[in-house]
What we know:
Cathepsin D, subunit A, domain 1
Amino acid sequence: MARGRGRGRGGGRGLGRGAANTNGDVPNARFEFRTGIAIADDIDDILQSRTDRGSTDSEPRLGPTPGIPRARPRTQRRDDDEVSRSYYGPQITLMQPTGPPLEVEESIGGMIADDPSRDPRISAILPDVASFTISVHPLHLPNSRAMFSSASSTSVIDWRFVRLAGLLPKMVPIRDGVDRVDLRSLYGGGPMRVYGRVDVLFDAHGYEFEQPFWVTDIGFPVEMVLGVDWAVNSGLTTRLFPFSISKADARKTRTVEDVYRMI
Length: 263
C-alpha cells in the first residue's frame, strides 16, 4: 500500500492511499499545491527506489505527467503571487486601492424573507418580485438576474458572480483596517461582509447601463440588487409588478431574453 501526504497553502493536510503492486516500501510522497500547480518533492526518490529494487512490468510506472512541471529545488520556488502570474497571466492581480479611507453606511433592501414551503430560486422569479434578466459584459452569461429595490440606498453584486462574470480583475478590494464600509440589511442581522467595489456594464430592458457596485454576499438567488442610486444615476421611469423600464438616460441596446417569463 503506497501512502502519500498532501500539504496545501491553505493550511489543510490530508493523507491519501492508493493500491499498488510493490515489492517493498515506497518513500512518502509529499505534494504541495499552489494555484493549479502540483509539485512533487520526492518523486526522484520514488523513481530511484523502484530502480534499486527492480521494477516489474506488472507494476504501475511513475513518470512525467502532462501539464505538471518537474520538481524544482525549494530555493528556486516562487511565492504565490508569482506562480499566479505565470499560470493565469497578469489579469489575476486585483487592482490596488488608492485615495483616502472610505467611510460608508448604506441600507440594503430587496431580500425576501425565507419561506420554508417555497424554493427561494422560485421566489426570485415570481411576478410580485421586481427582478429581471440582465446581460453583463463582457461574457454575457445567460440567465443572470437582477432585482430592483427602492428600499436599497446603494447597489450590490454577489461576490460569486463577480468571479463567474470575469469581473474579478476590475474589482478594487477593501483595505482591511483602513476602509469602513457598513452595509446592513433592512431585514436585520449584522453588517454584510464587503469585498470591494466594481464598475459593471450590463444590458437590461433594452438599455445599456454602467453602475458601480459593492461586492458582497447577497444570500439570495439573484446576481445583483439595484438600489435607488442606480435609478437616480440612470434617470429611470419604471413600473413595478412586473418590473419594466419605460424611459432611461442610457444607450438603447438589444432586449435580453427572459426564459422564465411566459407572457
